[in-house]
Amino acid sequence: MSSKTPFPPKLQYLSLGASCIAIAISTILVLLYTILYSQKCSQSFVPFNELKWSTSTDDMKFATNISHIKFILASSQKTLKSRKPYIESWWQPNGTRGNIFLDSPPPKDFLPWPSTYPPFQVNEDVKKLRVYPKLVVPAAVRMFRSILETFWLEDDQNVLGKYDHTKYHYTGMTSEAVKSNFDFSFDMAYGGAGYALSYSLVKTLVPIIDDCIERYPYLRVSDQLLSSCLADLGVDLTHVKGFHQIDLLGDISGLLSSHPQSPLLSLHHLDGINPIFPSKNQYESINHLMKAAKFDQSRLLQQSICYHKPTNWSFTVAWGYSAHVYETVMPRSLLRKPLETFQPFKKSARPPFYMFNTRLPWVDPSCQAAHAFFLVECSKVGDQIRIKIIVWG
Ligand SMILES: *[C@@H]1O[C@H](CO)[C@@H](O)[C@H](O)[C@H]1NC(C)=O
Ligand SMILES: *[C@@H]1O[C@H](CO)[C@@H](O)[C@H](O)[C@H]1NC(C)=O
Ligand SMILES: *[C@@H]1O[C@H](CO)[C@@H](O)[C@H](O)[C@H]1NC(C)=O
């Protein structure tokens, strides 16, 4: 069904919908869509280009930038307040575009609506849907329909006319937890982490959203609704490693310190884990990471590995976050595996827990123990970015 014409990457819809933000259902989201609004946006979008969102030379003139992305955040009145510092850490008034969808108008103590925040939109009442009596989780359907309600807001013929020749893209990532993927789907992008839909896909999806809801009234989460609906259109998920659902508990520094060489796009479930920097609280930690992001978002967290031959020491650096030092030579095949500093998301989970291999941290004084350092500050001297780190643990 997908169109064969080249896709000018003009407008992509990024829906951070779903169970996440979901807000009502789980703890939510926080999207560090850091990458998306850097000054070097076109560079940051290299991964999308690699996915061949853009094919003709004409398209190259219109490299995707932040103005082409519409963020859809599905939230609820109840969770609005606790998410605010997270959203403010990446939202750029007059830079990022989009809306935050709510189940009811914001409470009085949230008014006047902050200008540092995405404009709000109250979702339509799902009770008006014919299928409503059959819905198992009406809140999931409310959030899912934010895509459709966004489209209505945007439905300007002049805008649409320009984006006729496009392809279908559904990009996101599975959960880190085998159990989550088993329970929901291995073929679904997790809405807490966020996912991106190309404009043409949204355009095709919108008219059939309510039909999908009628077909799957028993689905409990909005991202499962979306992936089922897209599967029926013949569109499968393209995995992008930078989206992170963080279906994990405890200290995720081991995972973040072995981030693959893909731009960091999101971090979700931050309230369920330890702060990502020792000695800082949740909000401070995220703002601290974002300080490094301001210097170079495109490299944030990505792991580099090097060796110091005179001493036979190994070093791994997660850019803007941490550095690990080992007093021995350890092969990259080992060092790229995350240290299992975290615990499974669900007590009921059984091994294998994770969708990736891990290695156990060595706690004895053996040479294989990682000496962990964390970012203290970033500064720019001339053309060089200097990073100060501190040992921890
Ligand atoms: C983004 O791309 C549009 C063209 O589609 C251009 O007009 C605009 O200046 C670009 N913005 C940035 C920040 O590069
Ligand atoms: C956003 O732009 C409007 C109009 O250009 C301006 O009045 C407002 O102060 C800007 N807001 C911020 C937070 O920069
Ligand atoms: C480093 O490792 C090599 C190969 O095992 C060994 O020959 C050399 O002596 C080591 N150097 C130090 C400083 O330990």
UniProtKB/TrEMBL annotation:
Q: Which keywords has UniProt assigned to this entry?
A: Membrane, Transmembrane, Transmembrane helix
Membrane spanning stretches: 12-36
Recorded superkingdom: Eukaryota
- The protein, known as: F-box protein CPR30-like
Listed InterPro entries: DUF604
Species assigned in the record: Hibiscus syriacus (Rose of Sharon)
PANTHER family per the record? FRINGE-RELATED
> Looking at the keywords, is Membrane present?
yes
One Pfam family name is: DUF604
